[in-house]
UniProtKB/TrEMBL annotation:
Residues that span the membrane, as ranges: none
PANTHER family membership: ENOYL-COA HYDRATASE, IP11341P-RELATED
Gene Ontology MF terms in the entry: isomerase activity
Signal peptide annotation: none
Similarity comment text for this entry: Belongs to the enoyl-CoA hydratase/isomerase family.
Pfam assignment, any one: ECH_1
Gene3D superfamilies membership: 2-enoyl-CoA Hydratase, Chain A, domain 1 (3.90.226.10)
Organism, scientific name: Streptomyces phaeolivaceus
CDD domains per UniProt: crotonase-like
Protein name: Enoyl-CoA hydratase/isomerase family protein
UniProt entry keywords in alphabetical sequence: Isomerase
Length: 259
């Protein structure tokens, strides 16, 4: 299974695990569909009041869209539309307003930001790192940058987007700029996230979900307006698939800085 979901009936907390550790938990098309379906199903599951999402293993939370899946999705011949299989992998995109906490372990990059952008807050292992590889490989970081610009100061989000694979943001720095709400002891990110989720799940669900919706609505108008530009920017600025693959092969052995 590429997606594991377990529910603790005693605490009303579900733990969702991206389960592709050999692919650094990159999201392929079946996993994207499973995520979308799962969020819609959880809307009707009253035994779940709060959710934690994490990645299997300690190397990566998620490294975005699997490259094999990226080349398998045909694109329309129009600069105004784009087929993006990650647009519906988050709970808010599927009208689920139960709180989601992300427990970030290892790398979180690129398309992982679709999930992090729709999480209500992030808890990170001290070894977690955040970066956006798009520009390095000749791709526009549009959807990802919009989501991160709503979670971090403008300069930090822009630096991450523009520096590509040359620099990774550490968990410590992510905490300093407000992307992460807590840096745990090593190996404790899931435990810490579950602890928070259990507290929240113990409160009246109507109050909790209404609060999630209120917090999201404070960002939603600006987010929707910004995302409307994303397909056009991606269509205009992306290199061809072959050029992207050549850049990926040429640069994957390069080093990076951590701050």
């Amino acid at each position: 299974m590429t997606l594991l979901t377990t529910t603790d009936k005693a605490t009303a907390v579900a733990l969702v695990t991206l389960n592709r550790p050999t692919r650094l938990n990159a999201i392929d098309l079946p996993t994207a569909e499973q995520l979308s379906t799962m969020w819609r199903e959880l809307r009707y599951d009253d035994t779940v009041r709060a959710i934690v999402v994490t990645g299997a293993g300690d190397r990566a939370f998620c490294t975005g869209l699997d490259r094999d899946a990226a080349t398998a999705v045909p694109q329309p011949n129009s600069p105004y539309t784009i087929e993006d299989p990650l647009l519906r992998i988050g709970p808010k995109s599927n009208d689920l307003w139960k709180p989601l906490i992300a427990a970030v372990n290892g790398m979180a990059c690129g398309g992982a930001f679709y999930l992090l952008g729709e999480s209500d807050f992030l808890v990170a292992d001290p070894a977690a790192t955040f970066f956006d590889p798009h520009t390095t490989y000749g791709m526009v970081s549009a959807f990802e940058s919009v989501l991160m610009a709503q979670r971090m100061p403008y300069g930090e989000a822009t630096r991450m987007a523009l520096m590509g694979t040359a620099e990774r943001m550490s968990a410590r720095r992510a905490y300093e700029v407000g992307l992460v709400s807590e840096v745990t002891e090593p190996g404790e990110s899931v435990t810490a996230a579950l602890r928070c989720a259990e507290v929240i799940a113990g409160y009246p669900p109507e109050a909790v979900q209404g609060t999630v919706r209120a917090c999201w609505s404070a960002r939603e108008a600006a987010r929707a307006h910004a995302l409307a530009y994303a397909p056009h920017l991606v269509s205009l600025g992306n290199r061809t698939g072959q050029e992207q693959s050549q850049l990926f092969t040429a640069r994957r052995r390069g080093g990076f800085l951590t701050r």
